[in-house]
Design brief:
The structure holds 2 protein chains of 2 kinds. Chain A is α/β, with parallel strands linked by helices. Helix content of chain A is 31%, strand content 23%. Chain A has 10 helices and 12 strands. Chain B is mainly α. In chain B, 68% of the residues lie in helices and 0% in strands. The longest helix of chain B has 37 residues. Chain B is elongated and about 75 Å long. The chains are: A alpha/beta, B mainly alpha. At the A-B interface, helix 2, helix 3 and helix 5 of A face helix 8 and helix 9 of B.
Chain lengths: 326, 301
């Protein structure tokens, strides 16, 4: 395959609500190569999930509208496909892991049937074959295959999330979108699930988009990082570039929020202020009202993207003619 | 009604490996149902009636349609425990055979109502919007007409026969199932597992069958049990009015109707069919209530 597996360009998504139009995603661009993992980081409401749903073609409509952009997956623009064609892609080539395993499994259907859902939909397997495959998938996520006929309430939270992972991997998709897969789990189980996802990802050589607001998770599993703020990607680069040399004031702020174990601090240092109201985004750089390094130009002009060896930053500090080049 | 995870089927307690049978949600329901004495009694009566209906030819002492003018209007005796009617037919045999018709009509009519009503409700609830609006307004129209009058109108239009009777009663029951299923479908539709099912590429039909309907089962079952009672009552009422089962077929409603003329000298002609209807309806209602409690423990107290 030539070029990246997934290429999202100039994606714009709005939600039309009674109060007005919410600009949820504004010109998001990124690409992902087969087998790699991209971490999509940002606060709640930054547009991470909407971006993911746009790739899946599952933006709730109404009220959501994808106003422009393209999502190229394996050479096809997903946004131009019909619903029927998208159904063939979902689960088969791209699948999704949802945040809360308590609600993303159907309580009255056995886990086996839920895992075989994708297999039946895409691979024309008979019941018996699907059952066999579903058992194999359960084994893959380290759950005994004979628990195939059990209901979700008979599993613990971590096991349920593993069932969800088995569902997502059933058809061996090229891309998995994991929407905060560990947020609802406690820390030890988090580590377990992340480890499992990482090893399965290697085994199946699946690309992954990991949506999270936990930089620790990003550091553990991702190759690339994209930081989102108010519907835009403000900084993106390889893991080393972001973790070693974060440049955008927002990214720096995020890192400052992590308490340092070496240092004795009584308070963590949050970024001042709140996410802007998506109904009424500030002019210029969306981050300027909270930015400690805000300049006059930030208030009026949306910054361009500066590319430094794949490390892209959307900030006037680094732009052409920007005052300070760090 | 809230069918979220864990409320409908409480998690089972510690599972010992092979010894215990697999605890399906239905097992839990049965466990709760067993504790409700009244419901168990109601269920027993219903099961007994089904057995009686199935074994009618064995149990009935006489042919229900065999007339014997010499023996007409006999009171209860050892020969005829429930007496004989104006043609000398054995009342006990007629009531036993009547249970076949009543249960048959009850279950089939509810089947018609629950299947079509359920499908309409699931479609409306899942897709929402105009389609939902259209379906539910049609159901409102059906609801606005008293059930028995609607059934009379349908039988009047289709003609009197057993099948038409069942269709009429079934249609008059459509709205209750449509509403119940739609309400559940609306809550289930927004659940993450429906989105998850869509994310693996499941078709709408599959989502409705696999995700929406199983989650609506509890209210459907409860409504159906109560609905059978109502359907038996409606069918009896239609037969009483001469619009349902035609003589000489033994049916409780039409037996009531023909016994009516002899109310003064032979009250047992109306008493026993009436008692049969009451007992079945009561048993089904108690059973249905018990089922509701055990299917959704939150509603209890």
């Amino acid at each position: 395959m030539n070029g990246p597996l997934l290429e999202v360009a100039d994606l714009n998504v709005i939600y039309k609500t009674y109060e007005g139009t919410v600009a949820a995603v504004n010109g998001v661009e990124f690409s992902l190569e087969a087998g790699r993992t991209l971490g999509l980081v940002g606060e709640s409401g930054a547009g991470k999930t909407t971006t993911a749903l746009s790739i899946m073609g599952l933006v709730p409509s109404p009220p959501g509208i994808i106003t422009s952009g393209s999502v190229n997956f394996a050479g096809k623009n997903l946004l131009s496909l019909s619903e029927k064609e998208m159904k063939k892609i979902r689960g088969n080539h791209i699948s999704m892991i949802f945040q809360d395993p308590m609600t993303s499994l159907n309580p009255v259907v056995t886990v086996g049937v839920q895992i075989s859902e994708a297999l039946v939909a895409h691979q024309n397997l008979s019941e018996a074959e699907a059952e066999k495959k579903a058992m194999e998938m359960l084994e893959k996520v380290q759950i005994p295959g004979q628990r195939y006929r059990e209901y979700p309430h008979e599993f613990s939270g971590g096991m349920r999330q593993r069932v969800v992972i088995a569902m997502a991997l059933a058809c061996n998709p090229g891309l998995i979108i994991a929407d905060e897969p560990t947020t609802a789990l406690d820390v030890t189980i988090q580590a377990q699930v992340l480890e499992l996802m990482r090893s399965l990802k290697e085994e199946f050589s699946t690309a992954m988009i990991m949506i999270t607001h936990d930089l620790g998770v990003v550091g553990e599993v991702c190759d690339h990082v994209a930081v989102m703020y108010a519907g835009r990607i403000v900084e993106t680069g390889s893991l080393e570039q972001i973790f070693g040399n974060a440049r955008h004031p927002y990214t720096l702020g995020l890192f400052r929020c992590i308490p340092d174990i070496e240092e004795e601090t009584s308070k963590i240092r949050p970024i001042e202020g709140l996410m802007p109201d998506p109904l009424d985004l500030p002019s210029g750089c969306p981050f300027h009202p909270r930015c400690p390094q805000c300049m006059d130009v930030c208030r009026t002009i949306v910054p361009g993207v500066t590319d430094d060896g794949g490390h892209k930053v959307m900030c006037h500090l680094y732009g052409k003619g920007g005052a300070a080049h760090a | 009604m809230n069918n979220e995870n864990g409320t409908l089927f409480a998690p089972s307690s510690g599972r010992t490996k092979e010894r215990e049978k697999r605890r399906s949600p239905w097992w839990e329901v049965w466990r709760r149902l067993r504790r409700n004495k009244a419901a168990v009694a109601g269920m027993s009566v219903v099961i007994l009636l089904v057995v009686v209906a199935v074994l009618a030819p064995v149990l009935a002492p006489y042919d229900p349609n065999q007339t014997n003018i010499k023996m007409r209007l006999q009171g209860p005796s050892s020969e005829h425990p429930l007496g004989t009617d104006n043609f000398g037919r054995d009342m006990l045999s007629r009531i036993i055979y009547g249970s076949r018709i009543s249960l048959y009509v009850g279950f089939v009519a509810v089947g018609i109502g629950a299947v079509f009503g359920g499908i309409l409700g699931a479609i409306g609830g899942y897709y929402g919007g105009r389609l939902d609006n259209f379906i539910m307004r049609c159901m409102d129209v059906l609801l606005a007409i008293p059930q028995i009058i609607l059934a009379i109108a349908i039988v009047g239009a289709l003609g009197t026969s057993l099948l038409n009777l069942m269709i009429a009663v079934g249609i008059s029951q459509l709205p209750r199932y449509a509403r119940v299923v739609r309400a559940s479908a609306l809550t289930v539709r927004g659940q993450e597992y429906v989105e998850a099912a869509r994310a693996v590429g499941a078709s709408d039909a599959r989502i409705i069958l696999e995700n929406i309907l199983p989650n609506c089962m509890a209210p459907i079952i409860v409504q159906s049990t109560l609905g059978v009672a109502q359907a038996i009552l409606s069918a009896a009422a239609l037969s009483f009015l001469g619009l349902g089962i035609q003589p000489p077929t033994a049916e409780w409603g039409s037996m009531l109707s023909s016994g009516r003329q002899f109310l003064r000298n032979a009250p047992y002609l109306t008493f026993f069919p009436g008692l049969a209807i009451s007992v079945v309806v009561l048993a089904l209602n108690i059973f249905g209530d018990g089922l509701r409690d055990s299917l959704d423990p939150k509603l209890r107290q």
